[in-house]
Amino acid sequence: MSAAEPTPPRARLWKWVFAIFAPPLAATAWYVWLKVKTDDTLPPVFALENVPVLANDSGLTLLWFFLWPVLAVLAGIALLFGLRRRLGWPRLGLPLLALWWLLCAALGWKAWGAYADRAQLEPAQAVWAQVLGVYDKEPSTRGPGGALVFMQSPAWPGPRRALLEGAPPGSVTPGGTLDLRIARGARGGEYVTAWSAAASAPASAAPPAGR
Fold it and tell me: What is the largest CA-CA distance in the chain?
């Protein structure tokens, strides 16, 4: 009985191609399916996100804020090539592939978490917010467009933003006030379920006269 023949190079190559490209393709298909399911079965809402605020707006702080992601990527590349010199690609292949699969699985889990968050919304609460800035987005193949609004409310610890899809240009103006209905998701996310432009902030929120 002859010894088992080694795997042909072409077959080995196709195994690696499948192992590398199958996870991101599966994660993408999962994301698209969840997005279609969300659009078809859930009411339209607009995600409310925190806006990062720098404690120190000096030039050095701003430079570090934009530069640290680049430095992190370069450090990762340097670490990878350092390990390659020490261990070689054959010994690094399987651990790197395992990390790649874990990353794709984490992205799929994140997509599921976003869907589950929106699927179980608590009753909406009324909140008013002052508009700090607005960026009107034109409709495109990627979405219906709308108004990207940056706003602040006494109910929040810091400024927030939301893309109000379908809002006509000029319907939200900087310095204006918005009357919002905000619901919290099952996983802690917050969503604008309805909005309208208000003439001014509520009287209870205005500072007392003479102060």
Answer: 101
